Amino acid sequence: MFLANLVPGMLYWARSLKYFDSKITVVEISTVFGEDPEFWTVAVLGSDKHFMPGDFEVIAPVETPQAFPMRHAAE
After folding, report:
1. Which residues contact 45 (CB under 8 A, 6 or more apart)?
2. How far is 8 from 5, CA to CA, in rounded Å?
3. For position 72, what pLDDT does the model report?
4. Nearest 5 degrees, angle CA 67-CA 68-CA 73?
5. Which pLDDT does position 70 carry in this prediction?
6. Distance CA 25, CA 17 (A)
7. Which of 20, 45, 62, 63 holds its CA 20 to 30 A away from the CA of 7?
8. Which residues, other chains included, contact 58 with Cβ-Cβ below 8 Å and sequence gap of 6+?
9. What is the C-alpha separation between 61 and 40, in angstroms, rounded?
10. Helix (H/G/I), strand (E/B), else coil: 57
11. Residue 12, strand partner residues
12. Closest by Cα among 73, 72, 32 to 50
């Protein structure tokens, strides 16, 4: 999946050959450094680390179960 197909703020299943022993993990496309795609990073859930998009192979978007609507912590 190419960077042009990614949507900021969405969650994706991804794998990195450099990090996490090549295990599949959930990442978010982050715009913390800027809205322009050249500033996007990959944020790994459960950590405060940001990586370059090229460091990960994005496999597929994470799909939320329709039977269980998501609620935000502030609700």
Report:
1. 11, 25, 26, 27, 28
2. 10
3. 67
4. 160
5. 67
6. 12
7. 20
8. 1, 6, 12, 13, 14, 27
9. 17
10. strand
11. 27, 61
12. 32
> Half-sphere exposure of residue 68, counting CA atoms within 13 Å on the CB side?
4
Place of tokens 């944020």: 43
The enclosing H or E element of 51 equals: strand 50-51
Return the amino acid letter for 3: L
Secondary structure percentages of the chain, helix, strand, coil, to 5: 15, 30, 55
Predicted pLDDT of residue 40: 93
Q: Is the separation of the CB atoms in 55 and 15 below 8 Å?
A: no
Give the distance, in angstroms, between the CA of residue 41 and the centroid of all CA atoms in the same chain. Answer: 8
pLDDT on residue 19: 84
Termini Cα distance of the chain: 34
Q: What is the pTM for the complete model shown?
A: 0.77
Contact 42, 59 (CB under 8 A): no
- Weakly modelled stretches of the chain, pLDDT under 50: 1
